[in-house]
Amino acid sequence: MSSDVPGPPSSPVDRLLAIMRQLRNPDGGCEWDLAQDFDTIAPYTIEEAYEVADAIAGGDPDAICDELGDLLLQVVFHAQIAADKGLFTFDDVARAISAKMERRHPHIFGGVTAADVRDQWEVIKAAERAADGPRGALAGVAMSLPALLRAQKLQGRAARVGFDWPDTKGPRDKIAEELAEVAAADSNAARHEEVGDLLFAVVNYARKLGVDAEGALRDANVKFARRFAAMEDRAGGSLQGLTLDAQEAHWVAVKKSERA
Question: Where does the sequence pass through the membrane (predicted)?
């Protein structure tokens, strides 16, 4: 069987597309790649997107390039699965996003000004949603988004149609209200619901403050992991066996050393 992988004259993207076609070819392709579908690949797509974010946070251009390649492979994989089913192709994907970018930037590709675009942004988005049929203001916010990110997007969508606090006092007071409801909850089911409401309220407060809740928590996770590792180093490699007071002393010392 001859290979479908093109030689050097082809563009890098064409080569990648041909590689994926070969991997998905029932006649001599890869058994694992052939067995995949949208659902089985979706978790990998999410994972690769996070790995891009990690590489960006690390500030290593080579790592960013590598991870973007892995993410591009996910797009190519999904497009080939779709092509095999007769749904759409990679070119259709590229064509659709190109049209969307031109449509959303009429000040660059059309005859309007940047100020006009700012004024008409919701009109543009509404027209896109209308083309997909009747949908509410919250439609299109992906269920698979991380919970904090999805909460902030839902709140932002609601705010665009006027369902929002006029200032930061409302969402700040809402946190206190939800915290009291958590304390008053008398069952696991009630606590589950009330903690969810509390987290939603905290995200809304972050949004009103102009803080990206997902990014803020990600940074807090990194900070905690860094400080905990420093605590372990101070304790000789492990905190096991230390009293809570001793562990707290290490924690305070690590925080002080970071601020010095």
Answer: none
CA 141 – CA 197 distance, rounded (Å): 19
Asked if 12-131 and 147-258 have one fold, the answer is: yes
Report the pLDDT value the prediction gives residue 1, as an integer from 0 to 100: 47
Q: How many CA atoms lie within 13 A of 209 on its CB side?
A: 13
| pLDDT of amino acid 7 | 53
d(CA 207, CA 33): 41
Q: Which CATH class is domain 12-131?
A: mainly alpha
Tokens 């390039």 locate to 65
Q: Is the pLDDT of residue 128 over 80?
A: no
CA angle 123, 125, 127 (to 5 degrees): 70
Sign of CA dihedral 168, 169, 174, 176: positive
Contacts of 156 (CB under 8 A, 6+ apart): 207
Residue carrying the six token digits 């102009």:
210
| pLDDT per position as a tens digit, 139-154 | 888 888 899 999 999 9
Q: Given this model, what pLDDT does residue 27 score? A: 96
- 103: pLDDT strictly greater than 90: no
- CATH code for the part of the protein at 147-258: 1.10.287.1080
CA within 13 Å, CB half, 226: 10
- Residue pointed to by tokens 């509404």: 126
Q: What pLDDT is recorded for position 162? A: 94
For residue 169, give both structure tokens. Answer: 């006092």
**How far out from the chain centre does Cα 173 lie?**
28
This prediction's pTM: 0.65
Q: Where are the domains of the chain?
A: 12-131, 147-258
Which tens digit of pLDDT belongs to each residue from 207-219?
A: 999 999 999 999 9
